Amino acid sequence: MIVQRKPTCHRDRRIAGYVRAILVVTFLAGVGAIGLASCTVLSTPTPEGSSEEALVAFMLDYTVRNEIEPMIDIIETEDIPLIESPPEAFIIIWEPATRDETQAPWNWLDRENPNRVWLYRKGQITVEEDGRAAIQSYQQEYIENRPEMPSIFTWGYYEFGIVSLSEDGKRAEVLYTAWCGYACGHGILFTLARDNTGDWAIIGMMPLGGS
């Protein structure tokens, strides 16, 4: 199943420029960076009034707009040593998440039981019917078989999980991790709010420490 992306607004150009600049610096330093979108774009069909599905759609779109597309743009436009082209495919995984203060936040995600898995190729997002198989295939093709790759932009592996969702469906916490190579990645605990029109927005973020 291919999901067509239908934007309802455009990210502020000043923010897009800032994200692009900071990605160049921080990715080369071995740590990814993020930018906050100034609008909400739903990438997947969402049931009316479904806070969770709308939140999942927001995070999917966030990953494409603020992680994948900036990476592709940097690789294609910047003269970066050892980098010839962007990864052939990117994987995005929605996983169950449970807050456990006895564990590092990285371990709050249930990676053995993915809720949904998408692949991003050439501007299109495909929903994978067998999530576990898709993850295993991606790891074997793009990660495990390329340990000798010198570039930090070797792959694009993104995970997120809804840590909490308020009873009224208007506030949430989402754990988000991104991996783009052996020396490239970051994790963030997002705080989000949903307005009266049903749109989610990021209102706070806490960078995570090492795993």
Descriptive overview:
The protein is of the alpha+beta class and 211 residues long. The protein has one domain (2-207). The protein has helices at residues 13-28, 51-77, 131-144; strands spanning 2-3, 90-94, 116-121, 124-127, 156-165, 171-181, 184-194, 200-207. A hairpin with a 2-residue loop joins strand 6 (171-181) and strand 7 (184-194). Helix 1 packs across helix 2 (51-77). The longest helix has 27 residues, at 51-77. The protein is globular. Mean pLDDT is 78; it is low at 2-49.
Instruction: Give helix and strand order, one letter per element, not per position.
Output: EHHEEEHEEEE
- Count the E strands: 8
Number of domains: 1
Distance between the termini: 34 Å
Reported for the largest beta sheet, the result is:
8 strands, mixed
Taken from the alpha-carbon principal axes, the silhouette is globular
Work out the strand percent. 25-35%
- The radius of gyration over CA amounts to 16 Å
| Low-pLDDT sequence parts | 2-49
Strand line-up in the sheet with most strands: 1-4-3-2-5-6-7-8
Count the DSSP helices: 3
Q: Tell me the helix content.
A: 25-40%
- Name the assembly state: single chain
Structural class: alpha+beta
In round numbers, the mean pLDDT is 78
Quickly describe the structure.
The chain is α+β, with helices and mostly antiparallel strands and 211 residues long. The protein contains 3 helices and 8 strands; from the N terminus they run βααβββαββββ.
